[in-house]
Amino acid sequence: MKKLRMIGFASCFVAVAACGNSEEVTEEEEQETVEEVEEEEEEEEPVEEEEDDDDSATEPTAVSPTDHDDTIEFQHVNWILGSPDYYAEAGVWLYTEDDYPDDYENTFDFDEEDVLVYQIGDEEYLGHSFRAQHIIIEDEDTVRIEVEHNDEPDEDAEESDLNMPRQFLRVDQEVLRDKGFIIETTDGDVLSLE
Fold this sequence. Notes:
Helix content is 19%, strand content 32%. The chain is built from two helices and ten strands, in the order H-H-E-E-E-E-E-E-E-E-E-E. It has helices spanning 2-20, 27-43; strands spanning 57-63, 71-72, 74-79, 91-95, 113-119, 129-139, 142-151, 166-172, 180-185, 190-191.
């Protein structure tokens, strides 16, 4: 695609140059123009293309490691047709190719990824939402998920309609297995998982 664009640009350049100048453009001059265009394109940063997933969840938002040395890449899962039912209690669940709910089989590619789910237990945050910012490896046994307060409950909502904050995250296989988890806000408050 880049070469096609480059050839088109070079052809336009040669055509414009030929219109403004009665001298003929030699093949050597045209090759120099093509080489200049190639050099300019090599200097541009590559743009990553997004992959299409055939899930019942929307396109995930990728989050790259930043600001921390030992971070793990992950993607937020945004549900299209409504999210699965909330869990009865708070906690962290890591679903793998060997252990996941049957209804997630067609939603996630467990041959390629694990799915981390956290649900906060602090009653004061009923109806609120948090969004993961970083997954940080604290030590070989512990991972800290840094979250940011994202949304407050609807003022008109009945308390019985509110849920505890929770989020699904896609991670590479095996990077979080056999780890303990701490959920902490970007302000440093540790959130309950009980």
